[in-house]
Backbone:
């Protein structure tokens, strides 16, 4: 029973609403009514909580992808040094791989383009999809260096460049250009 304006009462049916229906009613209701003001506050808080949860999930996914890339890069580094390539050669292999992935931009040029300090790793500032792309190319390089027993800077560079080009082509099929993604 609900009270009407004339102190009369009327029997009305209970209605079960979805959460979304409650949200719509609250957002369009009169905030001077205590129940509406409470509902609006409730939904504002819940929306912010959900935004924070989603933000943390994305950050965790990015962190996990970055950790995988660090592991792949470490393995590539070890493989390269075992196969007669010095530090300068390792830097060249990685830079040429990046140049292939980033559509002709070198690592240094990408850092300038993304306003990244030259002493910081570029992957610390890339979106998750680009980190995953770099990791895939590096994992394939690691696999093939071991499988084919590649040695020397030239053969490993060729392999790494090819793998980065292949990953770039794959990304391109989905309209993704790593050098144009926001950091």
Residues:
């Amino acid at each position: 029973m609900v009270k009407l304006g004339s102190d009369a009462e009327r029997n009305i049916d209970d209605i079960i609403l979805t959460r979304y229906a409650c949200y719509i009613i609250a957002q369009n209701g009169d905030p001077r009514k205590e129940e509406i003001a409470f509902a609006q506050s409730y939904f504002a808080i819940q929306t912010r909580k959900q935004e924070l949860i989603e933000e943390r999930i994305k950050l965790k996914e990015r962190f996990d992808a970055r950790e995988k890339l660090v592991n792949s890069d470490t393995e590539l580094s070890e493989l390269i040094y075992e196969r007669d390539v010095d530090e300068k050669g390792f830097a060249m292999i990685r830079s040429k791989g990046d140049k292939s992935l980033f559509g002709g931009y070198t690592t240094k040029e990408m850092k300038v383009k993304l306003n990244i300090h030259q002493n910081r790793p570029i992957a610390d500032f890339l979106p998750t999809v680009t980190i995953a792309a770099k990791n895939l190319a590096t994992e394939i390089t690691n696999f093939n260096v071991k499988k084919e027993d590649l040695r020397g800077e030239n053969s490993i560079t060729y392999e790494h460049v090819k793998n980065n080009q292949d990953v770039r082509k794959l990304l391109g099929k989905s309209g993704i250009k790593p050098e144009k993604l926001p950091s």
